[in-house]
Design brief:
heterodimer, A: 339 residues, alpha/beta, eight-stranded mixed sheet, five-stranded antiparallel sheet, 13 strands, 32% helix, globular, B: 319 residues, Rossmann fold, 10 helices, 12 strands, 30% helix
Chain lengths: 339, 319
């Protein structure tokens, strides 16, 4: 598959009073044209910072490492001036954020806000053309009574409807890549379900690529084709969606899956949980970031970060236990092979 | 001793909005919780599950109905009369950041209920309760003199749980206790709550919107929609044989962590948005979004009936 985005060795650090927070510590991945890639991780895993780094939507305290490279459609983004980057933001790469309330201006009618998105990149459009395009976008994201609603203000919209406005805005300039950062986390399951269905349809119609960031493995299973599992600022595992769920290739992924109760979960026992808490990123562990919580950890895990092991096409994982010379005892991957 | 630690009958909680308008937050909700059991309440945001919990714990004065705590009617008790009874009923809040006083140490936070209820006379005496409690919730003595901001979300929630459990209550109301936590931490907190329940036999009212977690922790599950209870039955039953169209829609909207199954399920879900609780639809409140709505549904409100043994539902389809 042809890549629309290639990220190479991305490192993003925040300078704070209590030391440098190494939010993203060298990640590389690709997004194909028309592909939906999920980035899964818990809070502090670096999943949002990675996506914000692509569009450089970062606070002044953030530093992207000089050696990092982000190539979008053949163009290197890291060296661009803010002015050049603005030509890309919202036009070729757009973003949907988690909180649809704070991402909209409460004092401006929603129709005007969507219009603004079009106006910035297409100065030639007349007022009537703009209005018609906004109406069309509202129809696309299934906002009922668009004529009436585009004059309303964000507070008159429900959470789900606001998120639809955000999606309309993001799609206004027919971007090649859409970055959705937890767009359904603040919504109820019934509304989340509606929005996911809509995103899938819109993606099929437009052929845009999507990076979908979430902490919810269920959402990933419903929407994405390929998944990156992040922990401690690193990609722990990358896998096509079916492979990840059938055969997780990292102890962290295994733990994450086990701690979500299935609807037929046995209720008599305890819920499998991952002990401990995520690492402090001002002083990240020297070895594998998951080692302190990993039930299979060995000495080497804490001492040295493991290299990636390829587990097939588009599939890699970072774990010492996958090395050919790893001992079979207390090794989840060996048991798998024996079966 | 009463078999039920909590009995809620026809509980109604309205809030006035200006002169004329009224928010129908909770309307005619009835259920009971047996000793040592867990009742899970689920529903979309705005369905009244939190208002219901707050009325029960008497943060609000209920508009109607009765609340019996261990057989005692607490519906219209004054806060002074309620004070001694509060030992039996404690609460764990959703947000572990705003529900702990930032200027108090963990020791003071956990000791406060003991001092307020005169279980101990001073802070020194409180320590004999605080230390075992800290260890019980998976923290250590060394944590006692730290402040809330020094802890992660999961650890803070443990402090909130310790504060609720230190009085050895018989009923704990957990209002979305895990929603703000990461997946890997959620399981830790749920295990902690369940272990303690098995040890002490206390009852929980567990409010959440995560249906798979509710099924896992609850004995009985109630589904709320726009201020009303629409279905109430055993936790297994509600997932294997959901009767109310809303429950069915809610269940089918949960994302399945299994790509093969996710592709199979195409339809389902619930269309549309939650109507306003200020002007709830006439008849069955769900009829505006219900795929099976009949003419009667928009005219007459269905009442809770037992459709199968131990399985109540409020829906005209089961008349």
């Amino acid at each position: 598959m042809e890549a629309i985005l290639t990220v190479n060795n991305l490192k993003t650090t925040f300078l704070t009073g209590s030391g440098a927070v190494q939010a993203v510590r060298g990640i590389s991945f690709q997004v194909g044209k028309g592909e939906i890639v999920g980035i899964v991780g818990e809070s502090g895993s670096g999943k949002s910072v990675s996506s914000m780094s692509i569009l450089r939507l970062l606070p002044g305290t953030a530093r992207i490492d000089r050696e990092s490279s982000i190539v979008f459609d053949g163009q290197e983004l890291t060296g661009l001036t803010p002015k050049q980057l603005r030509q890309i933001r919202g036009k070729r790469i757009s973003m949907i954020f988690q909180d649809p309330m704070s991402s909209l201006n409460p004092l401006i009618p929603v129709g005007k806000q969507v219009e603004e998105m079009l106006k910035i990149h297409h100065k030639e459009l007349t007022r009537e053309q703009l209005r018609r395009q906004v109406l069309e976008l509202f129809g696309q994201v299934r906002i009922p009574e668009p004529e009436k609603r585009l004059k309303e203000f964000p507070h008159q919209f429900s959470g789900g409807m606001r998120q639809r406005v955000m999606i309309a805005m993001a799609l206004a300039n027919k971007p090649d890549l859409l970055i959705a950062d937890e767009p359904t986390t603040a919504l109820d399951v019934t509304i989340q379900d509606q929005i996911l269905k809509q995103l899938r349809t819109l993606q099929q119609e437009s052929g845009a690529s999507i990076i979908f960031i979430t902490h919810d493995l269920g959402v990933v299973a419903e929407l994405c084709q390929r998944v990156l599992v992040m922990y401690g600022g690193l990609i722990m595992e990358e896998a096509p969606i079916d492979d990840l769920f059938e055969n997780p290739g990292h102890p962290y992924t295994m733990g994450l899956m086990a701690s979500i109760p299935a609807l037929n979960q046995d209720k008599t026992g305890r819920l499998p949980s991952i002990p401990g808490s995520p690492p402090d990123m001002t002083n990240p562990p020297q070895g594998c970031p998951f080692a302190p919580r990993c039930p299979y950890a060995r000495k080497i895990c804490a001492a040295q970060c493991p290299p990636y092991v390829s587990l097939g096409e588009n599939r890699r994982s970072m774990c010492w236990l996958l090395q050919p010379d790893a001992p079979a005892e207390n090794n989840p991957f060996r048991k798998e092979a024996a079966r | 001793m009463n078999e039920n630690i909590l009995e809620v009958e026809h509980l109604t909680q309205h809030f006035r909005l200006g002169r004329k308008e009224v928010v129908h937050a909770v309307d005619d909700v009835s259920f009971c919780i047996r000793r040592g059991q867990t009742l899970g309440l689920v529903g979309e945001s705005g369905c009244g599950k939190s208002s219901c919990a707050r009325s029960i714990i008497r943060v609000y004065d209920p508009t109607g109905g009765t609340i019996l705590l261990d057989g005692t009617d607490i519906t219209h008790m004054s806060q002074k009369q309620l004070q001694p009874l509060r030992r039996k009923m404690q609460m764990v809040f959703q947000d572990p950041y705003s529900s702990l006083n930032a200027r108090m140490t963990v020791r003071d936070i956990i000791a406060e209920p003991l001092l307020a209820h005169h279980v101990v006379k001073n802070r020194e005496q409180a320590n004999s309760f605080v230390y075992p409690m800290l260890e019980r919730v998976g923290l250590t003595r060394e944590h006692a003199d730290r402040y809330a901001h020094e802890f992660s979300g999961g650890q803070r929630q443990r402090v909130g749980i310790a504060r609720a459990l230190v009085l050895q209550p018989e009923l704990v109301i957990c209002d979305e206790p895990i929603s703000a936590l990461d997946v890997s931490i959620q399981a830790q907190v749920v295990n902690l709550l369940r272990d303690y329940q098995q040890e002490k036999g206390l009852a929980y009212l567990f409010i959440a919107h995560d249906l798979s977690m509710v099924r896992y922790v609850s004995d009985v599950v109630g589904v709320m929609y726009l201020g009303q209870l629409v279905e109430l039955c055993g936790a297994e039953e509600i997932y294997s044989h959901p009767l109310h169209p809303y429950t069915q829609g809610l269940l089918s909207a949960i994302p399945v962590a299994n790509p093969a199954l996710a592709r199979q399920k195409k339809s389902g879900g619930v269309a549309g948005d939650l109507p306003s609780p200020v002007t709830p639809p006439a008849g069955c409140r769900f009829h505006t979004r219900c795929p099976f709505a009949k003419p009667i549904c928009s005219q007459e409100a269905p009442c809770m009936k037992e459709a199968a043994p131990g399985h109540s539902v409020a829906c005209h389809l089961y008349d």
